[in-house]
Amino acid sequence: MGFCLDFANKEDAKLNNIVYISHFDFKVKVNLILVVGPMGSGKTEYAAKIYKDSLVVRKKSLKVLGNIIKGNRSRVNVFFIRNFLDKRRFQDYPENVIPYRGGGKDKINEIGFAKNSFDIENLIASNPSCGTFIIDEACFYDERLIFVLNKMSLNENILFILPTLLYNFRKESFNDTAKLLVEYSDKIYKLGAYCGHIDCMEESFFSYRYYFYNNKEIPAPYFDPLLIVGGDEEIESAIYPNYSTRCSMHHYLVGKEYFFSFLKPFALLYSQGDKKFLENEIVALSTNVENSNFVNSLDSEKACVDRSEILRNILELPFLAERALITLFSEYSILSKNNFKDLVFKFSLNKDYINKIFFPKDGKEFF
Fold first, then answer.
1. What is the pLDDT of residues 254-287, one digit of tens each?
2. Which controlled-vocabulary keywords does the entry list (predicted)?
3. How far apart are CA 164 and CA 160, in angstroms?
């Protein structure tokens, strides 16, 4: 005999082992919803489901929808904003789909691309009938975005749904935009995922960056450039990374102590005219890493025997000097553009790698 619950019966309400999985409630009385989780946790897929729910709800009568319409804007009219980096990340997908891992082939009309908060502001203004805007990868935008959204949400009763990372591959807050998103959000939906390590099923909330090179898993060093576009399929490359979600045990990261004890102080000295320390370190990283301070720091960062081998793999990763200089220049702004170029030319560093990693919004190569 089959088992059936009579939800009209109050006795069934006493059951505490029922988990309700509901469609999205467009009547929710909030304006900023943050959807956070590591890469691969389903943030964009969750947002795509909200869009699909809207296709059902928008067919309802005004009797039902009246309370979620203000002026011309209805919250069941959903517009999806993709980051312009998706054009590089999802080159095999049409531009009018919501792409995510393992899916995202449904074509939609209400979709656009943005590079910055001004683009987003224009898209909102250009779609006056939409009352819900999903802004994917929200932390990739400038801090101004949060204040624009906060003002618009209050003045026009717009609902903003913001799928985003909060932490980078270093397990640090992604940027100031991420911090402000947490501060101003009304609700935060936190998604987790299985640890991506083959021998683990623990839940994970961390994004792990690694390279698959010479048939080995090589963890990205702490000083790897912060923003590098990666795809959803594992590739063998020393330039483009792979991403996975990992638990604390299997999230390998090396070079943090090295960066703050050597690279950053050396760069500060360089900017003040004392160039020898940084130049010597760049030479070692680019020609014989065994002579660098990086090797010495590895010994102090190995937590156990199981981790030592995979951390040691990092010495086989090319372009360590280029990675360090990009971070010191573009992220920390310790080195000027001229400093950066002088070092690249002086030590014949790989300009092709740098051009591939830098992705200027004007489309021009750095060198």
1. 899 999 999 999 999 999 999 999 999 999 999 9
2. ATP-binding, DNA synthesis, Kinase, Nucleotide-binding, Transferase
3. 12
Assigned token pair, 177: 């935009």
**DSSP helix/strand/coil, 343:** helix
Give the C-alpha separation, 137 to 141, whole Å. 8
State how far the Cα of 346 lies from the Cα of 349, in Å rounded to an integer: 8
Beta bridge partners of 148: none
Q: CA angle, 211 as apex, 210 and 216 as ends, to 5°? A: 110
SS3 221: strand
Cβ 211 vs Cβ 314: under 8 Å: no
Domain layout of the chain by residue ranges: 11-191, 203-246, 256-357
**Helices 117-126 and 144-156, interaxial angle, to 10°?**
20
The values of phi and psi at residue 71, to 5°, are 65, -130
- Where does residue 135 rank: exposed (0-12), middle (13-18), buried (19+ CB within 10 A)? buried
11-191 carries CATH number 3.40.50.300: yes
- Is the overall model pTM greater than 0.90, yes or no? no
Mean pLDDT lowest for which of 12-26, 112-126, 313-327? 12-26
